[in-house]
Amino acid sequence: MNARSRPALDPATDIAANATALLGAVYAICVMARLDPDPKRLRILADHAIANLSKRQKLKSKAPSR
Question: Are 42 and 29 in contact (CB under 8 A)?
Fold first, then answer.
């Protein structure tokens, strides 16, 4: 199966939940940037937020389908 025949997103992807989580992460980074503009801490926060999004996606893909 080549890249063109596969859908861009997994059909089981909960787009609304992922969008909400991503928006929350962006908001948290904006707040942190105003309170403490340390680039190292902001990078750690961004990495943590992205890791949580990918972890959530992996857990949903392992969940049994109904």
Answer: yes
| pTM tops 0.85 | no
CB 21 within 8 Å of CB 52: yes
Q: Evaluate whether 53 touches 25 at the Cβ level (below 8 Å).
A: yes
The span from the CA of 46 to the CA of 50, in Å, is: 6
pLDDT tens figures, 12-25: 777 888 788 788 87
Q: Distance between alpha carbon 28 and the CA centroid of its chain, in Å?
A: 13
**C-beta of residue 12 within 8 angstroms of C-beta of residue 57:** no
SS3 content of the chain, % helix, strand, coil (to 5): 70, 0, 30
Contact 64, 12 (CB under 8 A): no
Report the alpha-carbon distance of residue 55 to residue 66 in Å, rounded: 21
